[in-house]
């Protein structure tokens, strides 16, 4: 097995892959991508990305825009925490914007205050000026509700999808979700199918220390599209890793 060849292909694909739609809604995606006029939308979406599907979390800034008619920092700063909670929990419970409305209303409100106080209303200062990846991850970690997984994911999206220049990419780890852990095991990059999140993160750092997170999207797409949990459902013939993959090599010819 040629681990270097496997790594190189994952890296190469990681450099050309882009995220699919963030929300499934073109207008909501446009708001998130508007880093010039609404950089706080991207940050607030990251704050919401917890315990619900990413699509549902990332559309929340757009729901606020629809409710308020604008998404300027001036308007957002006028919202009390109760105002935020009222927008997040419409009369019908089924329409709540988040499963954890109370906590997420607090976090959303605190994030607006932090962007106002620490970044003078300009959230793009979090990533402007060619900062180190560690500094960017640290700045996201300062927001209530954002842990290492979301902080590194945020830095990764900024670097990969939005081409934001960073001084380095050392601190952008792989986000080791269930798809990525499974693909690492099938490619025999980890020795156990039960490898922990930490084991996968450190293996990715070992393989490509200059930017471990660059393998994130290629592995995630493999896991979601072809490398199914049940071995009987594997679609190796369509996977771009097939000719390098030890698991595929052991499978009987179709
Ligand atoms: S070739 Fe097959 S087993 Fe290997 S990563 Fe791709 S889908 Fe998974």
Q: What is the makeup of the main sheet? A: none
Total helical elements: 14
Strand content: under 5%
Report helical residue fraction.
40-55%
Shape: globular
What value does the Rg take, in angstroms? Answer: 20 Å
Order of helices and strands: HHHHHHHHHHHHHH
Low-pLDDT ranges: none
- Please, what is the average pLDDT? 93
Distance between the termini: 22 Å
- Name the quaternary structure: single chain
What is bound: which ligands?
iron/sulfur cluster
Total count of domains: 2
The secondary-structure class comes to mainly alpha
Secondary structure tally: strands: 0
A few lines on this structure:
With about 250 residues, the chain is an all-alpha fold. The chain has helices at about 5-15, 25-35, 40-50, 55-60, 60-70, 75, 80-90, 100-120, 135-140, 150-160, 180-185, 195-205, 215-225, 245-250.
Explain how this protein is built.
The protein has 254 residues and is mainly α. The chain is built from 14 helices and no strands. It folds into two domains: 3-18 and 172-250, Helix-hairpin-Helix base-excision DNA repair enzymes (C-terminal) (Endonuclease Iii, domain 2, Orthogonal Bundle); 26-126, no CATH class. It has helices at 3-16, 26-33, 39-48, 54-58, 60-68, 73-77, 81-88, 101-119, 133-141, 148-160, 178-186, 197-207, 216-225, 246-250. Helix 1 packs across helix 13 (216-225). The structure holds iron/sulfur cluster. Iron/sulfur cluster binds at residues 183, 186-187, 222, 226-227, 234-236, 239, 241-242, 245, 247-248.
């Amino acid at each position: 097995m040629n681990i270097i060849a496997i790594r190189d292909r994952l890296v190469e694909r990681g450099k050309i892959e882009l995220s699919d739609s963030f929300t499934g809604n073109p207008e909501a995606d446009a708001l998130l991508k508007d880093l010039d006029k609404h950089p706080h939308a991207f940050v607030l979406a990251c704050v919401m990305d917890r315990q619900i599907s990413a699509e549902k979390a990332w559309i929340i800034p757009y729901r606020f825009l629809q409710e308020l008619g604008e998404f300027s920092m001036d308007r957002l700063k006028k919202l009390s925490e109760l105002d935020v909670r009222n927008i997040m929990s419409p009369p019908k419970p089924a329409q709540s914007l988040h499963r954890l409305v109370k906590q997420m209303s607090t976090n959303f409100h605190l994030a607006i205050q932090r962007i106002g106080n620490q970044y003078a209303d300009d959230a793009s200062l979090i990533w402007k000026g060619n900062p180190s990846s560690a500094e960017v991850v640290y700045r996201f970690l300062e927001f209530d509700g954002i842990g290492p997984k979301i902080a590194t994911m945020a830095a990764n999206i900024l670097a990969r999808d939005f081409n934001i220049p960073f001084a380095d990419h050392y601190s952008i780890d792989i986000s080791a979700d269930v798809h990525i852990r499974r693909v690492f095991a099938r490619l025999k990059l980890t020795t156990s199918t039960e490898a922990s999140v930490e084991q996968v993160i450190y293996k990715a750092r070992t393989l490509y220390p200059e930017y471990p997170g660059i393998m994130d999207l290629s592995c995630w797409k493999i896991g979601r599209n072809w490398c199914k949990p049940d071995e009987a459902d594997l679609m190796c013939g369509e996977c771009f890793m097939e000719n390098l993959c030890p698991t595929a090599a052991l499978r009987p010819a179709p």
